[in-house]
Amino acid sequence: QVRLVESGGGLVQAGGSLRLSCAVSGLTFGNYAVGWYRQAPGNERELVAALGSGGPANYAESAKGRFTITRDNAKNAVYLQMNSLKPEDTAIYYCNARLWAEYWGRGTQVTVSS
């Protein structure tokens, strides 16, 4: 059974930082592309950052220069370091793993107060 479990969300003031983690199990993690998406109330889910099994990361324009996605294949984990957070970053953040199939976590809430 494939499981993706996010953690690390919470309430933070504008300008602060959070580090999200996603623990993945049930698949050959190193073969999968991974990513972080977010969905704010009333909005569609959008890509924040993605990282393939090799090669550079891709970021949404809103995340460039502030967020960093990394993966640890030995730990079957993917991380999102978020700095200089803004109120508009408030959303539920979802972890994603994709190869031939696509898997999602249940999300973790990030709230940035002004």
Please tell me about this protein's structure.
The mean pLDDT is 96. The chain has strands spanning 3-7, 10-13, 18-25, 33-39, 46-51, 57-59, 67-72, 77-82, 91-98, 102-104, 108-113. The chain is globular. It has no helices and eleven strands. Helices cover 0% and strands 54% of the residues. The protein has 114 residues and is mainly β. 31% of the residues are buried. Strands 2, 4, 5, 6, 9, 10 and 11 form a seven-stranded mixed sheet that branches. Strands 1-3-8-7 form a four-stranded antiparallel sheet, with no helix packed on it.
TL;DR of this structure?
This protein is mainly beta and 114 residues long. It is built from no helices and 11 strands.
How does the overall form come out from the CA principal axes? globular
Average of pLDDT: 96
List SSEs in N-to-C order. EEEEEEEEEEE
- The helix content is under 10%
As a percent range, the share of strand residues is over 45%
By DSSP (H or I, 4+ residues per run), the number of helices equals 0
Task: Briefly note the structural class of the backbone.
Answer: mainly beta
Walk me through the topology.
Elements: E1 3-7, E2 10-13, E3 18-25, E4 33-39, E5 46-51, E6 57-59, E7 67-72, E8 77-82, E9 91-98, E10 102-104, E11 108-113
Parallel strand pairs: 2-11
Antiparallel strand pairs: 1-3, 3-8, 4-5, 4-9, 5-6, 7-8, 9-10, 9-11
